[in-house]
Amino acid sequence: MLISFKCPACNNRMYEDQSATGKLRQCPRCRHCVQVPMVKPERRFSLRWLIAILLLCVIAGASYWIYYYLETHS
Ligand SMILES: [Zn+2]
Predict the structure, then answer these.
(1) Helix, strand and coil percent figures for the chain, each rounded to 5
(2) Is the pLDDT of residue 40 over 80?
(3) How far is the CA of 62 from the centre of ligand 1 (A)?
(4) Which of 27, 31, 44, 54 maximizes the CB count within 10 A of its CB?
(5) Helix (H) or strand (E) holding 2
(6) How far is the CA of 14 from the centre of ligand 1 (A)?
(7) CA 39 to the chain's CA centroid
(8) Which residues surround ligand 1, an ion (CB under 5 A)?
(9) Percent of the chain at pLDDT above 90?
């Protein structure tokens, strides 16, 4: 997994493999030596979010249906 971090000297965004954590890398722009930080890998759109949004739609739909049912049957 790739982790991204910024060079503290020139703010250049750098990418390095997670296995390189703690190692020194030279910034390609300013030649500053940067230690690869301990950060979580950048996440793309995760499945968990999709499930959460879907669940929210289901709950919203169900509550609307219940409301509609109660309105029309009372
Ligand atoms: Zn730099």
Answers:
(1) 40, 20, 40
(2) no
(3) 53
(4) 27
(5) strand 2-6
(6) 9
(7) 12
(8) 7, 9-10, 12, 27, 29-30, 32
(9) 72
pLDDT at residue 39 in the model = 67
Strand-pairing partners, residue 17, are 2
Q: For residue 46, how far is its CA from the centre of ligand 1 (angstroms)?
A: 31
Stronger pLDDT, 35 or 40, i.e. the higher one:
35
Q: Please tell me the distance from the alpha carbon of residue 23 to that of residue 37, in angstroms, as a whole number.
A: 8
Give CA torsion, residues 47, 50, 52, 54, to 10 deg.
-140
- Name residue 17's amino acid: D
- 52/49 Cα distance (integer angstroms): 5
| pLDDT greater than 70 at residue 65 | yes
Q: How far is the CA of 44 from the centre of ligand 1 (A)?
A: 25
Calculate how far, in angstroms, residue 7's C-alpha sits from the geometric centre of ligand 1.
5
